[in-house]
Write a structure and sequence with these properties.
Layout (H helix, E strand, L loop, with lengths): L1 E5 L5 H10 L3 E5 L3 H9 L3 E2 L3 H5 L4 E4 L4 H9 L13 E4 L5 H13 L3 E4 L2 E2 L1 H7 L2 E6 L2 H11 L3 E8 L3 H30 L3 H8 L7 H4 L23 H17 L5 H18 L17
Parallel strand pairs: 1-2, 1-4, 2-3, 4-5, 5-6, 8-9
Antiparallel strand pairs: 7-8
Helix pairs in contact: 1-6, 4-5, 8-11, 8-12, 11-12
The structure holds nicotinamide-adenine-dinucleotide (NAD).
């Protein structure tokens, strides 16, 4: 099978590497020279444009920053849907709004091309280790066809429903994550200010009803979890600007169906403030800095 992989950044580069390690034939394209270089070093075939990568492909995988990039790659001037043969498969693993992938799917289906949304959870560590969770929106037949390929990059491949359902699952999960991280940060900062040792407090939370991923795997207080971004200056994690993007998607989607997302709207403002203060690239657990005294 020939695969075209478009978007070889922090996530896509590592995912494409796992496909190459599994012996698949991968043609890749990215706007970034550095991304292309890493892909070439891993044994990928470098292409000059999305169409160049897609013209021989049986499957296209995209891992791009946001909806406008995904639209450009599928439907734009150099869009892959123009050159893909009927019967080919497309997987978009970017995190975008559910409506955009449904719109792209309508065009793809008119050309007899199958497409699914398959956003991921697991971050760059999961991408590297091939242990991502894929949340797939597709009909049954397409799901069964994409699953073996996704299994080279992830360990949980979940069928969420029809096209768009994967993105719904993803934005709801990250809505909860953004809120729970802020809640843990608020509780940890309050406890320490009141005089409890942070290790003791985390120990209690993690054996009590406040326990969650943000408290026991990725605690925002430094050196509670040695592998967490908080223990390395909030570097190399899930960037605050990406969390802000995901909360924006959840709030926008909620607005479309007139559903309240009260806490989501509040934490969106906190992450917005962090980005405005120049911390957009720090891990989102650095939200705890909103609760600590400013350094002199
Ligand atoms: P990234 O910015 O590192 O990579 C995106 C890549 O897309 C870049 O290399 C960029 O040059 C390339 N690109 C942009 N426009 C392009 C175009 N028109 N043609 C070809 N290449 C193009 O971002 P990332 O961290 O890899 O995230 C990718 C997606 O995965 C995002 O939607 C993000 O929300 C989602 N995601 C990221 C993480 C994470 O931990 N980083 C976790 C889960 C989901």
């Amino acid at each position: 099978m020939n695969i075209a992989f478009i978007g070889l950044g922090n996530m896509g580069g590592r995912m494409a590497h796992n496909l190459l390690k599994a012996g698949l034939n991968v043609h890749g394209y990215d706007l970034s020279e550095v991304a292309i270089q890493h892909f070439a070093e891993a044994g990928g075939v470098v292409c000059d444009s999305p169409q160049d990568a897609a013209k021989q492909a049986d499957m296209v995988i995209t891992m791009l920053p946001a909806a406008k990039h995904v639209k450009e790659v599928y439907l734009g001037e150099n869009g892959v849907l123009e050159v893909l043969k009927a019967g080919s498969l497309c997987i978009d693993s970017s995190t975008i709004d559910p409506q955009t992938i449904k719109d792209i799917a309508a065009v793809a289906h008119s050309k007899n091309i199958k497409i699914c949304d398959a956003p991921v959870s697991g971050g760059t560590i999961g991408a590297q280790a091939g242990t991502l969770t894929f949340m797939v929106g597709a009909d049954d037949q397409t799901f069964n066809e994409v699953k073996p390929v996704l299994s080279h990059m992830g360990k949980n491949i979940v069928h969420c429903g029809d096209v768009g359902a994967g993105q719904i699952a993803k934005i709801c999960n990250n809505l909860i994550l953004g809120i729970s991280m802020a809640a843990v940060a608020e509780g940890m900062a309050l406890g320490v200010k009141l005089g409890i040792d942070p290790q003791a407090l985390a120990g209690v939370i993690n054996t009590s009803s406040g326990r969650c991923w943000s408290s026991d795997v990725c605690n925002p207080w430094p050196h509670i979890n040695e592998n967490a971004p908080a223990s390395r200056g909030y570097q190399d994690g899930f960037a605050t600007q990406l969390m802000l993007k995901d909360l924006g998607l959840a709030v926008e989607a909620a607005g479309q169906v007139k559903q309240p997302v009260v806490l989501g709207g509040m934490v969106q403002q906190l992450y917005q403030q962090m980005c405005m203060r120049g911390n957009a690239n720090l891990d989102f657990s650095s939200i705890i800095q909103q609760y600590l005294p400013q350094e002199a």
